[in-house]
Amino acid sequence: MRILVAYVSGFGATEEVAKEIASILAHHHVVDLRPLNNVRSLDAYEAVVVGSSLRADKWLGGMFKFLSRFRTELAARPLAIFTIALTARTLDGSRRVVNESLPKLMARFPELHPVATEAFGGVLNFDKYNPVIRTIMRRVAQQEGLPTSGLSDFRDWEAIRHWAAQLGEELAAHKC
């Protein structure tokens, strides 16, 4: 099966997760990894995995553009969606994102029915932020009781790998 793993990433954390998902899927499938804004066609793909980070419970703009542009094609093939969010750094937070943010996204695209969705913890990297974002993120981190400087990575790589492996099996089953 040929699978596209596409992503939109603000500071690189979602891109790194997309790369890991693509790597796991590539054990049993042919996989292309691309930023969402570099995807011109879905004709070559039998399935699509798409990811975006969430900021203040909002999807990055590229996600809406991609889903809008390819809604007909995405409705005709297996689709999986993942997100990276600080809220999802705990199991309860991940469930909240899956139960609240993903349905809001899908409500805008009712013809899309993902075969899998997941939310993973995000990253705080104050060295990458411009002064305005750094100030905003410090406030968010303080409210959440998180570090307000340096790098804090809340991604659970084992959970990411496990989800990707299960997804690979699910997509292979759709091919039958």
Please state the CA-atom Rg, rounded to the nearest Å: 16 Å
Mean pLDDT across the residues is: 90
The count of DSSP E runs of length 2 or more, i.e. the number of strands, is 8
What would the principal axes of the Cα set say about the shape?
A: globular
Describe the main β-sheet briefly. Answer: 6 strands, mixed
* Count, helices: 6
Q: Distance N terminus to C terminus? A: 10 Å
Helix content: 40-55%
Question: How would you characterize this protein structure?
Answer:
The protein is of the alpha/beta class and 176 residues long. Helices cover 44% and strands 24% of the residues. It contains six helices and eight strands; from the N terminus they run βαβββααβαββαβα. Strands 1, 2, 3, 4, 5 and 6 form a six-stranded mixed sheet that branches. The mean pLDDT is 90.
Secondary structure: elements and pairs:
Layout: E1 2-8, H1 13-25, E2 30-35, E3 47-55, E4 58-59, H2 61-69, H3 71-75, E5 79-85, H4 91-107, E6 116-121, E7 123-125, H5 131-144, E8 151-153, H6 157-175
Parallel strand pairs: 1-2, 1-3, 3-5, 5-6
Antiparallel strand pairs: 3-4, 7-8
Q: Quick summary of this structure?
A:
With 176 residues, the protein is α/β, with parallel strands linked by helices. Helix content is 44%, strand content 24%. Strand 5 (79-85), helix 4 and strand 6 form a beta-alpha-beta unit.
List the keywords.
single chain; 44% helix; 176 residues; two-stranded antiparallel sheet; alpha/beta
